[in-house]
Amino acid sequence: MFRLAHLSDIHLGPLPRFRKRDLMSKRITGYLNWRRNRAKAMGNSALNLILDDIEASAPDHIAVTGDLVNLSLDEEIKAGRLWLDGLGEPHDVTFVPGNHDAYVLGALKKTVRELRPYITGDSGPAGSRIFPALRVRDKVAIIGVNSARATPAFIAAGHFSERQAAALEALLERTGEAGLCRVILIHHPPVRGATTPSKRLFGITRFQNVIRRAGAELVLHGHTHLETLNWIKAQAGDVPVLGVAAAGQMPGGPRPAASWNDITIEPHPAGGFSISAVRRGLSQDARSVEVIGQMTLSRQPPVRAPETAR
Length: 310
Ligand SMILES: [Fe+2]
Ligand SMILES: [Fe+2]
Prior knowledge:
The chain is 29% helix and 23% strand. By secondary structure, the protein is α/β, with parallel strands linked by helices. It has one domain (2-296): Purple Acid Phosphatase, chain A, domain 2 (4-Layer Sandwich), CATH 3.60.21.10. It has a six-stranded mixed beta sheet with strand order 3-2-1-12-13-14. The protein has a six-stranded mixed beta sheet with strand order 4-5-7-9-11-10. Helix 2 (31-41) crosses helix 4. The N and C termini lie far apart (45 Å). The model is unreliable at 22-35 (pLDDT under 50). Bound molecules: fe (ii) ion (2 copies). One fe (ii) ion (FE2) is lined by residues 67, 98-100, 156, 187, 223.
C-alpha cells in the first residue's frame, strides 16, 4: 500500500525580514526542529492545520501541484524552497510549478533552479529538459509535467507543449509496461470547462490524446482552488483527474476552505491498482481538519457496445 498526499496552491507570502534571526535561533535549537517549524511559520493558520494533518497521517510521498508563491519574487522563491524543505526530503516530496511560480519572463528558470531537488526526475533531466520528470517510489511512477509559463497581465493560462506530449507518451508507455501505477502531476486542469478562458490550459486535447492512447492511473492538478473530480476517456479505462482547494484558504471565501487529498494506492490481485482518496478539509470553525469526502479513483473500464445476437 502506498499513500500519497496531494496539496496545491500554497501561495506563500514573501519571507518576512525578522525571519532571518528566527532562522539563526532555530539552527541552534536543532536543524530538524527548525525545518518543521519553518514550514509552519511561513503559512497562515489554515495552512498550518493542513500541514499538521498531513504530518500526523504520515504519507509515503507528498505531491505539491504548483503555485507555491504569488509573484515569483526572488525572496518568495527562496522562501518557497525553505517551505518545501520543511515539508520533507526531496526524495519524499515532488513539486510541479504553477503560473504564479512562472509569473514573469525568467521566473520559471529561477523557480526550477531553486526547487530543483523537488522537481527533477530520479535520473536527472534529459539534457536541458526537466519535464516530464519521472520518479519511481514503490510501485508508483510519479510524473511531473510543466504547464506553467510567463503570461501577460490578467492571463493565467497554461501550456502543454508538443515536445512534452511526445515525451510524456513515451514515459507512460514505458512505466505502464513496467506495471507501475502512473500518477501525473500538472498545475492546470487538463479538462475542458474547468476554468475561465483566461486561466485555461492550452493543449487540453493534446494532453487527453496522450492519456487516451497511453493510459494513466491518476492525474492530480491545482490552479482552480476547487475540489473537483473529472475523468479523461482512455482506451484502457477512464482516468480520474483530481483537483484540490488551495492549501491556505480560510473558510468564508468564494472558494472552498483548505483541503488535501489523502490517496491510497494498492496493487490489485487481478492486475492494475485499487486507488481511493479521502478529502480532508478545514472545518467551518477553522479549528480542525476533518473528512469532507471519499472517492474511488480506480480506472473505470471502457464502456463496450453490447454484443449483438448471432
Ligand atoms: Fe493558485
Ligand atoms: Fe494557478
